[in-house]
């Protein structure tokens, strides 16, 4: 086996049919869903981003999950590489945590991500088939003549019908290297993310260019990958200029942020169900 068996990806959602038996350095946060995607793709091992570890260690909780399928798993320290950027993870990533399967293959904290990935090539490989696991999308609040508040465990679940609404996601607040903008997603009123330990979440100034109020919650305050935790537990850590114009500031709760956005004077389409 050689380095051609190591995949470098900006997201754990990008595994294809050719991933079987390979090792991936994927710049997604390390919550359970990313681990599930790796197990489903029959990877021999996967290295994810620890996303600041965060509340209830959600940023690394795919590690024991992967052990259930003898999948080697490891996390890159959030201070060593950019989340959402596989090239950064591969170039400068330093391992912060490993699971038991990875440790048995020779992986350990302090390694470079490439050294860890090379060690994983000798790991046993997945046994068993993971049960279906989906990310959640749900309605948090729907009041007459006001924008809806929608919860999305992943920003990928934001859809065209969410235009004018407030979306509370549990995705990290960094743009993907390969998709550096809000893109074709709708012009929502406001969007909330998890800061994943970042001091400057790059999604926020990008949202300013679309007139969308943006904010992140502190990784230590809410479980990354869990939109209900973002809404119920999250404390705002960063806001963009659009959000600041509506009175949002770091330190308020996510619930208070959504209340501010609701009171901002804009309403969603009254024709929506």
Characterise the protein shown here:
The chain is an alpha/beta fold. It folds into two domains: 3-120, no CATH class; 137-262, no CATH class. It contains nine helices and eleven strands. It has helices spanning 32-40, 62-67, 86-92, 100-104, 113-120, 203-208, 227-233, 241-245, 254-262, and strands spanning 6-9, 23-29, 45-49, 72-76, 95-98, 137-141, 149-152, 166-172, 190-194, 213-217, 236-239. The strands form two sheets. Strands 6-7-8-9-10-11 form a six-stranded mixed sheet. Strands 1-2-3-4-5 form a five-stranded mixed sheet, with helices on both faces. Strand 3 (45-49), helix 2 (62-67) and strand 4 form a beta-alpha-beta unit. The N and C termini lie far apart (54 Å). Mean pLDDT is 92; it is low at 267-273.
Map the helices and strands:
Layout: E1 6-9, E2 23-29, H1 32-40, E3 45-49, H2 62-67, E4 72-76, H3 86-92, E5 95-98, H4 100-104, H5 113-120, E6 137-141, E7 149-152, E8 166-172, E9 190-194, H6 203-208, E10 213-217, H7 227-233, E11 236-239, H8 241-245, H9 254-262
Parallel strand pairs: 1-2, 2-3, 3-4, 7-8, 8-9, 9-10
Antiparallel strand pairs: 4-5, 6-7, 10-11
Low-confidence stretches: 267-273
Global outline: elongated
Mean pLDDT: 92
Could you give the distance between the termini? 54 Å
Gyration radius, rounded? 19 Å
Domains (count):
2
Taken in chain order, the helices and strands follow as: EEHEHEHEHHEEEEHEHEHH
Sequence of strands across the biggest β-sheet: 6-7-8-9-10-11
Largest sheet, in brief, is:
6 strands, mixed
Query: What amount of the residues lies in strands?
Result: 15-25%
Give the total of beta strands: 11
Look at the helices and sheets and give the structural class. alpha/beta
Q: Give the helix proportion (percent range).
A: 10-25%
Please, how many helices? 9
